[in-house]
Structure to design on (579 residues):
């Protein structure tokens, strides 16, 4: 922008602002006018700073960079305050928001004849934006993301972003891969998928993939049947099942799941649809062919810059923003659309971030070098589960604690964690290795009704919310699946006024069959068997409310804190067998 244009812009907007202030203001209109004036002044000041630095033609030093960053921060906060005030005045909307104090306007810097743009002796780091909501500060446990895969098509580019520590190429199934020469199938087999899945598991544990030498054993107490059930469960939730040899600590599982990778410590978040992503589609004024897909390096640079800019605007962690795809807009020449999502381990915080981004997008992001390409507008988000991978470490199955509830003579009820424990009679339990996975205190997994024990509960492979979420992109509370929320608030107060999910005290009549989808194993053309999975977990005392609905037998426990659930077993039961 030429300097004359900047000065003309200053004069015009200043005169317009003065005229606006001569009229009689009503209510908080005066505050809106004042904010408009401050926004105009800061915007022009930023443009002048950028113009002067470009004119100098040298690299901006750290002091200048921090001044410009503070000015951008101040400008963004002023715009947010103005938008909130407009909503209060014209829409009669009551808005409650915590906005950190505005940084001071940078003072003009007197040039020194010896100024060589030296860096200060003490390191300076550009300040991050402070959260503008009452949610707790994001945990440093949120893993940073990286781009693992880029698939470029003529009109669409797919982006796969994963936690930096996760390698999706370590072990990943590809049904179209014909190079699996090590698999020897039984004669007469037409359905290859079960064998490919089990072959991947066998490779992970170092066993043969010759199914003539060692056939698949299909039964309730066969680990290979469990693996097939987990594959079906992953597919049911649009995930890819992967196997790893790396050690996994489950106390960080929730953060990994929010970044797109679930494991046995966060598998309940998949089953209960408790981890939702706010999906946005922003229109950008960049040509898909000429400015975006020139190379994978160009795509990566743009995607990383976009995510970093969104994180800076929202004061959130790098791992909370993922880009899923970029596509060409057919009816808009030179325009594209970027599809991305916001996810945190706390639904309430994700909702706040999505709300803030919606407000910001109304007036645009013209002060950011990347987001300035976003077309200002009223963008709505769709809510969907967006976990991409279910990662299993075979050694995290703990056979020494497997238990056969099909054994006759077992009691129907015991006591665990001071609550009744209704045994899942008729099922076979595969134990998960949970000792020392949540720190050194293992009292929670005890089974003698001692102090520190957590009571036992169950949950199925899906929730009632999933169909409405996937079909309409609505929050669970918007489709009335959180049926006991008001009753929970009555029991414990505002602590329960958050999105909740449910576990049951009974396996039969509680989680099964209402919240369970059976899976079928076909090993030969004339032989198939059907099984069901239910997850067995412990729930932290004092972290749930008790309800008689939505179950037909026993009680339902409503939980708002996902870390208050710890899976420790997977139950399998045979349904039907046809030959």
């Amino acid at each position: 922008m030429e300097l004359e244009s900047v000065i003309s812009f200053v004069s015009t907007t200043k005169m317009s602002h003065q005229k606006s202030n001569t009229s009689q203001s009503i209510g908080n209109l005066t505050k809106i006018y004042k904010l408009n004036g401050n926004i105009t002044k800061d915007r022009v000041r930023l443009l002048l700073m950028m113009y002067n630095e470009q004119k100098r033609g040298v690299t901006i030093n750290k002091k200048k960079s921090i001044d410009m960053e503070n000015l951008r921060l101040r400008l963004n906060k002023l715009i947010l305050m103005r938008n909130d005030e407009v909503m209060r005045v014209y829409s009669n909307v009551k808005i409650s928001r915590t906005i950190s104090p505005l940084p001071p306007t940078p003072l003009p810097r007197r040039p020194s004849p010896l100024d060589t743009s030296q860096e200060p002796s003490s390191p300076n780091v550009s300040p991050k934006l402070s959260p503008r909501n009452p949610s707790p500060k994001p945990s440093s446990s949120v893993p940073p993301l990286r781009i693992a895969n880029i698939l470029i098509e003529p009109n669409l580019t797919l982006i796969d972003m994963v936690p930096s520590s996760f390698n999706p190429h370590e072990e990943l199934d590809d049904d179209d891969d014909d190079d699996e020469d090590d698999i020897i199938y039984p004669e007469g087999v037409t359905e290859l998928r079960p064998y490919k899945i089990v072959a991947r598991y066998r490779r992970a544990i170092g066993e043969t993939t010759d199914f003539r030498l060692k056939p698949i054993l299909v039964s309730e107490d066969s680990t290979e049947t469990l693996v097939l059930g987990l594959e079906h469960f992953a597919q049911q939730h649009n995930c890819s099942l992967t196997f790893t040899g790396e050690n996994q600590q489950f106390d960080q599982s929730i953060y990994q799941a929010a970044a797109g990778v679930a494991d046995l410590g966060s598998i309940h978040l998949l089953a209960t649809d408790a981890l939702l992503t706010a999906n946005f589609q922003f229109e950008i004024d960049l040509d898909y062919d000429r400015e975006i897909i020139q190379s994978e390096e160009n795509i990566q640079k743009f995607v990383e810059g976009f995510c970093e800019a969104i994180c800076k605007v929202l004061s959130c962690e790098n791992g909370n923003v993922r880009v899923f795809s970029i596509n060409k807009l057919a009816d808009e020449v030179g325009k594209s659309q970027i599809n991305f999502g916001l996810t945190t381990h706390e639904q309430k915080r994700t909702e706040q971030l999505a709300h803030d981004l919606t407000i910001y997008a109304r007036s645009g992001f013209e002060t950011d070098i990347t987001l300035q390409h976003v077309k200002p507008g009223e963008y709505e988000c769709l809510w969907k589960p967006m976990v991409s991978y279910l990662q299993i470490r075979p050694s995290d199955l703990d056979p020494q604690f497997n238990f056969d509830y099909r054994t006759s003579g077992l009691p129907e009820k015991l006591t665990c964690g001071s609550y009744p424990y209704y045994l899942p009679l008729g099922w076979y339990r595969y134990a998960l290795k949970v000792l020392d996975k949540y720190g050194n205190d293992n009292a929670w997994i005890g089974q003698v009704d001692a102090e520190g024990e957590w009571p036992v509960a169950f949950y199925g492979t899906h929730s009632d919310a999933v169909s409405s979420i996937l079909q309409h992109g609505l929050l669970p509370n918007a489709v009335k699946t959180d049926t006991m929320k008001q009753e929970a608030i009555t029991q414990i107060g505002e602590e329960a006024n958050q999105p909740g999910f449910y576990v049951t005290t009974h396996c039969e009549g509680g989680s099964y069959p209402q919240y369970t989808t059976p899976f079928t194993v076909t090993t030969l053309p004339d032989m198939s068997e059907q099984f069901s999975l239910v997850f067995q977990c412990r729930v932290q005392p004092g972290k749930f409310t008790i309800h008689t609905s939505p179950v037909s037998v026993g009680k339902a426990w409503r939980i708002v804190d996902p870390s208050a659930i710890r899976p420790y077993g997977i139950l399998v039961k045979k349904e039907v067998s046809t030959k």
Remarks:
- The chain has twelve helices and 20 strands.
- The domain at 145-164+277-384 is CATH 3.30.70 (Alpha-Beta Plaits).
- The first strand starts at residue 145 and ends at 152.
